[in-house]
Amino acid sequence: xxxxxxxxxxxVYVNAVDYEAGVRAIIDAxxxxxxxxxSALAVHGVMTGALDPEHRYRLxxxxxxxxxxxPVRWALNRLHGAALPDRVYGPNLMLRTCxxxxxxxxxxxxxxxxxxxxxxxxxxxxxxxPGLIIAGARPSAFRTLSAExxxxxxxxxxxxxxxxxxxxxxxxxxxxxxxxxxAALSMPLIAVGAAFDFIAGKQPQAPMWMQNSGLEWLFRLxxxxxxxxxxxxxxxxxxxxxxxxxxxxxxxxxxxxARRPKGELRFG
Length: 268
What we know:
Blueprint: E1 3-9, E2 12-17, H1 19-32, E3 36-41, H2 43-50, H3 53-61, E4 64-67, H4 70-80, H5 90-104, E5 108-112, H6 115-128, E6 134-138, H7 147-160, E7 164-168, H8 173-181, E8 188-191, H9 195-200, H10 208-212, H11 216-223, H12 225-247
Parallel strand pairs: 3-4, 3-8, 5-6, 5-7, 7-8
Antiparallel strand pairs: 1-2
């Protein structure tokens, strides 16, 4: 088990952990029924914090941030000597956590996406993990919630008996969600990005050689060019430039420049 704690990458604290340490931290929090926010961040996720001081504050308040992308793992290894042998990829983290939850009888809750996708995801998870208890599921409203609606969501999750919540709202909405709901929910809240689509079989995953070589972004760009071209064409070079500045001890973005958000965004 590898756990070197939090390390700064472009002003965002990322945990230098492996899968075993990540899953153990999540399951421990679930069994102890304590608030525990989790996110798996690739380059895009790190850059949302690097470019927005308020969102950087949210990310740095998350308890466990895993290196979802190979470039983020490489940054941890290069800047901090983490010697991580692999990334901690959101979809795999979700599957490993579901396996552990099934073994320990910890019910899960699915939040986000569409009702149809949640139905397909539920079926896929139950087939893969027959002992898994899915306490509930709620699709995204695809809008800002009122304070009353947000409180109703919290009540629904608590009353379901869930001990772990997986959140699939897309980055950075899902990280904002786990940050804003953490105080109200005494359980792990895990932002897992495209894991819902991948596990449900709605989106293809890159071949393993592309994943291992840090080219997953190219595969995803080829499958969804209109939606993703700005993310990768603009943010990837910016990530490399800012990383080079940090590597030569001239960081342009620092964790200390984070700014507490003025209010809640209440993504639903």
